[in-house]
Amino acid sequence: MPVSRPVPPLSQDQTATAGFWPHGWWKLMEFRIGILPLPVYVLLVGVVSIFLVSGKLPGEISVMIAVLALFGFTCAEIGKRIPVLRNIGAPAIFATFLPSYLVFKQLLPALLVKSVTDFTKSSQFLYLFITCIIVGSILGMDRQVLIKGFLKIFVPLALGSIAAGAVGTAMGTVLGLGAHHTFFFVVIPIMAGGVGEGAIPLSMGYADILHQPQGDLFAQILPSVMLASLTAILLSGALNYVGKRYPHLTGEGRLQPDEHDDMNLTQEEINSHVDVSHIAAAGVTAISLYLLGLVLYNRFGLPAPVAMLFLAVLVKLTRAVPPELQEGAFVVYKFFRTAVTYPLLFAIGVALTPWDKLVSAFTLPNLITIVATVTTLMGVGFLVGRRLNMYPIEAAIVNACHSGQGGTGDVAILSAADRMALMPFAQIATRIGGAITVTLTLVALARFA
Asked: Among 115, 221, 273, 329, which residue's Cβ finds the most Cβ atoms within 10 Å?
């Protein structure tokens, strides 16, 4: 929603002599669409329109940043203005699924779709976002409770997965989908870790075991992944609303009651003592940890974001970086959370979210089974988390990420819940939880097929 920021008051003499320029203009510049000042927003609309009408939209990074910011914050702004839905994550939902629908209906210019898709897939800037969010949030955590949170989160995650598998399979069987089909083609894909790390290797394993075309099996799996992710986004947005009504159930992004941010910086503190060089150094440090994660992936097969996550935890626990750099990392985290989330979600919607696959899952038996599975996963996370002295809403949202669309789903779910600080735990649920799910499922299918 547009934000009107206060302008310093004028003296009586200034008020008498000042016209629209410059103070009236400054006030207009402080009226925002997302983070975009209104005059800048209007300028971008005009410039991007000129490029599209001319049939030449440069793919260079500066142009694509402007395009993604313009459309991402526009979609989010629409979501913020929808009654009721705006309280349950509508900005993230609209930023992701509105562009997907517009692409399907061919209502976005083909040139725009091609440029955004090419940039998103070639740059892989999703991983830059996840890198800065993970490293920044971990370095900003209380190191005394960090390791406790990482160990404890596996309990609600494991119990939630088992319960969701049982409830989802039972529901699908009752609705006539068949136990075998429900378990292997609806329930398991939901918790497999998304598309790239989940649905694709799962379908490849199915193809080898069942001796069927991998493409056909993938087409059966993908709709469940897409619809489950949408369900998790909606439910997580609803939990954010619940948390505002019942504050004792949530830590507002903190997983445990005794946890706090080491770097809980105000804007004034950032301006006064966080040096720009430390912010830049923190950004490069985060990227370096991701590169080291890529090396570990090539050597040991451990997904790079997971390797980077554990490296960041190691850095935090061993005090390998000074407090000034930790503060810089936390500022990097806050910048990406504020400025990059909605542009990234728009890119995901255009390039990585096929609307037709999502809609194809909207049969009543599928819909009920998927919603029952995700609800059980989150409900068990809520209850078990509370028993383990964790904030139940945060535990449920982390479990929701286990049913999301991989890294893209994590961003959308945590954005809808306004809990981006949970990204490290979300990556555990998505990457590690998904890998365990796929591995155990393929072993079981090979044995009993």
From this structure: 329
Task: For tokens 């570990």, name the residue.
Answer: 296
- What the block records as the tokens of 168 is 């989802």
How many Å apart are CA 361 and CA 187, to the nearest integer? 13
Q: pLDDT tens, 140-162? A: 777 766 777 777 888 999 999 99
Closest residue by Cα to residue 269 from 320, 319, 316, 328:
328
In angstroms and rounded to an integer, the radius of gyration of the C-alpha atoms of the chain is 23
Q: Between β-strands 36-37 and 32-33, what pairing exists: parallel, antiparallel or unpaired?
A: antiparallel
Q: Residue 1 is encoded by which pair of tokens?
A: 């929603």
What's the longest Cα–Cα distance across the chain? 86
DSSP state of 302: -
DSSP structure string for 178-228 = -HHHHIIIIIHHHTS-SIIIIIHHHHHHHHHHHT--HHHHHHHHHHHHHHH
The alpha carbon of residue 437 and the mean position of all alpha carbons in its chain are separated, in whole angstroms, by 20
Cα 235 from Cα 96, distance rounded (Å)? 16
pTM of the full structure: 0.78
Domain borders along the chain are: 12-123, 125-448
Retrieve residue 87's tokens: 């309280």
